[in-house]
Structures are given as C-alpha cells and as structure tokens.
C-alpha cells in the first residue's frame, strides 16, 4: 500500500522564493527564515519519501476567475513552474505520479468528494516555495509530487471540516493502492495575513500559535472553525490555513510533533512550520 507517514506544514510566502532565486538567503532579514528549515531538510532527506502529495493554493496562475475548482488534483506526468509575472522560477519541473493520482481521484470521488481532475497545470509559488524551503535547489526534486490545488482565493472556500474529511479520504485512497510507497503530505499556505484593505499587514501570532498547538493535538477543534473566524482573526488570506487540515486528516489521530518553527516577519506574514509523524510510524 501507499502509506502517508508524515505531514509537513509551512507558509508559502512568494518573497522567500525570490530571496532564494536572487541569492539573498544569507542576508540578516532572510537568514533566520532559511535556518529554520535546517532540521527539516535533514529530516526529509533521511525519510526518503517516494511521493509527496502537496496541498497548496493557486494564486490566479493556472486558474483565473473563469474557472475556480474547489479541489483540483494534478494527474499529469509533469507540472511546469508558472510565470507569475517575472518569468517562471528557476526550479525543477515537478514530476507527478499519474497512476497514484488517478487512483486517489477514483477513490475519493467514489467517496463523494467532487475533485476536479487536472491533466495540465503550471504550479506557482504556493507549491514551489515549500519545496525550496524543504529541499533547496536540486537539479531534480527528489521524489514524485502530486499537486492538490484548493480554492482559498475566491469566496466560498471549502470548510475546515470538509478539508479534514478530504484528508481522511486521501488516507484511505492511498492505503488501497497496490504498490508499496512511502508518502508525505504537505499542507501549505498561511499563516495569518492580509494583503489588502484597511487591515493590510495584519499578523495575529496568538491565533497562529493556537492553531499550531491544536493542529497537533486537537485537529477536530480546528476543523470546526468557520470561515468567518479565519477572516476575523487571521485576516483575509488567513483562510489559506484551512489547507493544513487536509494534511492533518490524512494522518492518524495519534501523531508525534517532530518539529515546529515560527518566525516573524517574512514579507507580510509569519512563517509557520510544523512536521508531524504518525505515532505508529517507525523508520526501521
Ligand atoms: C504574501 C503571502 C502569500 O501567501 C501570498 O500568496 C502572497 C504574498 C506575502 O506575505 O507577501
Ligand atoms: Fe498565498
């Protein structure tokens, strides 16, 4: 079976990608951000996943107001970095896993989650920045990556509960896949931030930290939080964190918190990062 053994949550601030691409990782502003991922890079290199399911949101790069899928699963063989206005990032093309992706699509759709199947999609900073943070800049990404794009840009986004349950359906789907694969699921975006309007620049560290605590120990409570509370407490873009619940739902109830990192500022938001492993998982 394909077993989802761990989750990685982290923010996807586009300026982090620019800092990396322009060689600014050692500057006083950015050095602490990248240093916060030293442990994580070693952890994932040692874990050697076969596949990453990467839950992220598109920022009007692959999609636009013309087409807004709530959940879009990348079933293609490869996904190119998107041109977000200043040329595509100089990062490897993402190699997908079409067979596992098609299996997940079939399983979760039969479980009554209406995924959109995507056979061609460029991937933006929402997907590439977490990869840069976790892997730096290899010639190729070290494993296959299945993108799962979630609409958190155009109201209405999916509820936390729906995301949490979709994660559970993805777990079930993976476990019915015939080939033995080690899978890590990424839940990305966040943390609290607002990019426009009167509250532009909002960061709510107390909210962020509570969310990190509860995601580990009390995901059901996070799942029950309505959209309006994200909006009120975490700013208009804080709803990106609903995607973290898909990753949490794909793990077992009992997890170990392996690593946590929280740093302000990173552009207009806090950089939050969490690694969880299933309690039942051991590498030996
Ligand atoms: C910023 C954060 C985001 O999540 C995003 O998609 C765009 C910008 C920011 O902090 O600048
Ligand atoms: Fe974003």
Mind explaining what this structure looks like?
The protein is of the alpha/beta class and 284 residues long. Helices cover 33% and strands 22% of the residues. The protein contains ten helices and ten strands. The chain has helices at residues 14-21, 31-35, 38-47, 98-110, 125-135, 160-175, 205-217, 219-223, 227-234, 244-249; strands at 2-10, 51-56, 71-74, 78-79, 94-95, 116-118, 144-150, 181-188, 255-266, 269-278. Strands 6-3-7-2-8-1-10-9 form an eight-stranded mixed beta sheet, sandwiched between helices. It has a two-stranded antiparallel sheet with strand order 4-5. A hairpin with a 2-residue loop joins strand 9 (255-266) and strand 10 (269-278). Helix 1 (14-21) packs across helix 5 (125-135) and helix 4 (98-110) packs across helix 6. The protein starts with a strand and ends in a 6-residue tail after the last strand. The structure holds 3,4-dihydroxybenzoic acid and fe (iii) ion (FE).
């Amino acid at each position: 079976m394909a077993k989802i053994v761990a989750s990685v949550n982290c923010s996807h601030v586009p300026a982090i990608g620019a800092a990396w691409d322009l060689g600014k990782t050692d500057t006083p502003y950015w050095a602490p951000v990248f240093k916060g991922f030293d442990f994580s890079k070693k952890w994932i290199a040692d874990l050697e996943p076969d596949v990453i399911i990467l839950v992220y949101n598109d920022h009007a790069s692959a999609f636009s107001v013309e087409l807004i899928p709530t959940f879009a699963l990348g079933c293609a063989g490869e996904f190119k970095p998107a041109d977000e206005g200043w040329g595509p990032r100089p990062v490897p093309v993402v190699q997908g896993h079409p067979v596992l992706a098609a299996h997940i699509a079939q399983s979760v759709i039969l479980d009554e989650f209406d995924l959109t199947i995507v056979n061609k999609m460029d991937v933006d900073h929402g997907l590439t920045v977490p990869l840069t943070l976790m892997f730096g800049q290899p010639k190729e990404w070290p494993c296959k990556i299945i993108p799962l794009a979630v609409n958190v840009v155009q109201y209405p986004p999916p509820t936390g509960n729906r995301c949490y349950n979709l994660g559970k359906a993805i777990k079930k789907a993976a476990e019915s896949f015939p080939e033995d694969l080690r899978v890590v699921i990424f839940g990305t975006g966040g943390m609290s931030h607002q990019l426009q309007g009167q509250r532009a620049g909002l960061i709510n560290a107390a909210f962020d930290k509570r969310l990190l605590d509860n995601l580990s120990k009390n995901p059901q409570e996070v799942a029950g939080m309505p959209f309006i509370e994200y909006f009120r407490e975490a700013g208009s873009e804080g709803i990106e964190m609903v995607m973290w619940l898909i990753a949490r739902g794909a793990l077992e109830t009992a997890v170990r918190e392996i690593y946590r990192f929280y740093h302000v500022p990173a552009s207009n938001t806090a950089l939050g990062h969490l690694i969880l492993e299933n309690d039942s998982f051991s590498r030996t």
